């Protein structure tokens, strides 16, 4: 039996990241810190049922008001006990999915509270997960219409892309018990076998100057010819689809945040794999209002999914008109259990709280297999360091790395040559290529200097 490493989890949610680590068989979870009551109940009940290794303490605390010393006193854990600190601080202001907000004082955001626990616990490794938009976020976001390309003044350093992470990197270098080396990986869960398009940023740090590398994709678009030598000669498996995840599911006690009768009246007219573009012009305009005139961001309107394609990124509420996640053949929103399958939670994993709270737990979770892959990677790195008697590698690195690994899947086409593109109505690979194009970049790395 290989050694199990001890883990503390922050912002635990429904434990997607923790389940991924646990599934490797290499970790023991000591404690979880989570702010929301219903989320804590989900953790406690699944721990009681024996669905995760160990017997972690569950602390319902707002980490912004929770000191590291308080954590150590309440749990009885000593800093030298913690091998890995994990967590996914909620940082909606960094997401590119909505309107970005100015951070103003980034040290007040939750990623800095995660850093505070890195300093206080001094774990051997840490794993921080976040939206991919964090990598490019600026401390102060300037509107595009006011940028230099539009005649505006030159960007200040705090307005430049990536200034949030440069500041975080600078603070990470200077914490007590540091410096920590950190590698950031921009990845997409669909490229590793998850049935969902989901871009994430994984930050892996350690205090031994060890560089780690996230593996190249194992799955790819089956309808696009990709040269196998781009992946070291290893052929890719086809992307897993929504059908792979939920087609066999027979949920007799469904929790569903469903569409209203009005919304269903529009969705009834949309075929699988299509969206608002399949509606008559006058119905499009009437049902979408001002959004119909927008230039972008409309693909989710009246969207009906397809069993034959990966699921779009799950959101916390599947029944919004503009981000609808309608079942392929039934006119209803995806159920909670279907959500859980898409995120790859075990089928016996239970969720507690109101329907909206349960959907939020699953929709905000880290895809289980990303936690598994990161867990394997970190455990292998610690095995090597243990053989070295935990002696650091050479000197501290002069910069961190940001490694892009095909995280952006090129947007599928919904409309071409004046015609709506609907999955299943075309034939052959030429039709399928209109959905997701070939990747432009597989892997690239850049150095991230301190602020």
Keywords:
two-stranded parallel sheet, 451 residues, 13 strands, Rossmann fold, nine-stranded mixed β-sheet, alpha/beta
Task: Describe the model.
- The protein has a domain at 5-221 and 362-405: Vaccinia Virus protein VP39 (Rossmann fold).
- With 451 residues, it is of the alpha/beta class.
- It has helices at 16-22, 37-48, 68-75, 110-121, 163-174, 242-246, 261-267, 281-288, 336-343, 355-363, 368-387, 428-433, and strands at residues 5-10, 27-34, 57-60, 84-87, 125-131, 181-188, 199-206, 219-220, 237-238, 400-405, 415-416, 419-420, 443-448.
- Helix 1 (16-22) crosses helix 11 (368-387) and helix 9 packs parallel to helix 10.
- The two termini are 44 Å apart.
- The strands form three sheets. A nine-stranded mixed β-sheet has the order 3-2-1-4-5-7-6-10-13, sandwiched between helices. A two-stranded parallel sheet has the order 8-9.
- The chain has twelve helices and 13 strands.
- Strand 11 and strand 12 form a beta hairpin.
């Amino acid at each position: 039996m290989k050694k199990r490493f001890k883990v503390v989890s922050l912002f635990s949610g429904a434990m997607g990241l923790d389940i991924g680590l646990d599934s490797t068989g290499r970790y023991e979870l000591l404690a979880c810190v989570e702010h929301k009551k219903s989320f804590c109940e989900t953790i406690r009940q699944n721990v009681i049922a024996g669905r995760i290794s160990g017997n972690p303490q569950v602390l319902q605390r707002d980490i912004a008001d929770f000191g590291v010393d308080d954590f150590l006193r309440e749990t009885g854990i000593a800093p030298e006990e913690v091998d890995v600190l994990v967590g996914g601080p909620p940082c909606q202001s960094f997401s590119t999915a909505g309107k970005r907000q100015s951070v103003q004082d980034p040290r007040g955001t939750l990623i800095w509270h995660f850093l505070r626990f890195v300093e206080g616990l001094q774990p051997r490794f840490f794993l921080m997960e976040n939206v991919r938009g964090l990598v490019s976020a600026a401390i102060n976001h300037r509107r595009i219409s006011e940028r230099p390309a539009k005649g505006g003044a030159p960007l200040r350093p705090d307005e430049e892309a990536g200034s949030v992470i440069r500041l975080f990197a600078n603070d990470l270098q200077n914490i007590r018990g540091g410096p920590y080396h950190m590698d950031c990986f921009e990845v997409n869960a669909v490229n590793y076998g998850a049935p969902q398009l989901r871009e994430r940023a994984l930050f892996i740090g350690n205090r031994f100057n060890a560089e780690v590398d996230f593996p190249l994709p194992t799955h790819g678009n089956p309808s696009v010819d990709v040269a196998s030598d781009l992946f070291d000669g290893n052929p890719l498996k086809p992307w897993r689809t929504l059908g792979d995840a939920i087609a066999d599911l027979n949920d007799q006690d469904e929790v569903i945040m469903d569409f209203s009768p009005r919304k269903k009246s529009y969705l009834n007219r949309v075929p699988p794999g299509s969206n608002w573009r399949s509606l008559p012009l006058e119905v499009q305009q009437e049902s979408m209002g001002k959004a119909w005139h927008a230039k972008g961001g409309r693909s989710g309107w009246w969207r009906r999914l397809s069993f034959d394609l990966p699921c779009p990124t799950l959101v916390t509420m599947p029944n919004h008109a503009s981000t609808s996640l309608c079942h392929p053949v039934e006119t209803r929103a995806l159920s909670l259990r279907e959500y859980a399958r898409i995120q790859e939670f075990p089928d016996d994993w239970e969720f507690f709280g109101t329907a909206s709270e349960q959907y939020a737990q699953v929709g905000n979770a880290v895809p289980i297999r990303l936690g598994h892959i990161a867990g394997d990677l970190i455990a292998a790195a610690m095995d090597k360091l243990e053989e070295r008697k935990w002696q650091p590698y050479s000197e501290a690195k002069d910069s961190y790395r940001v490694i892009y690994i095909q995280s952006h899947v090129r947007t599928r086409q919904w409309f071409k040559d004046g015609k709506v593109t609907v999955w299943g109505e075309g034939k052959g690979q030429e039709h399928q290529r209109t959905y997701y194009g070939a990747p432009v970049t597989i892997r690239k790395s850049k150095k991230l200097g301190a602020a």
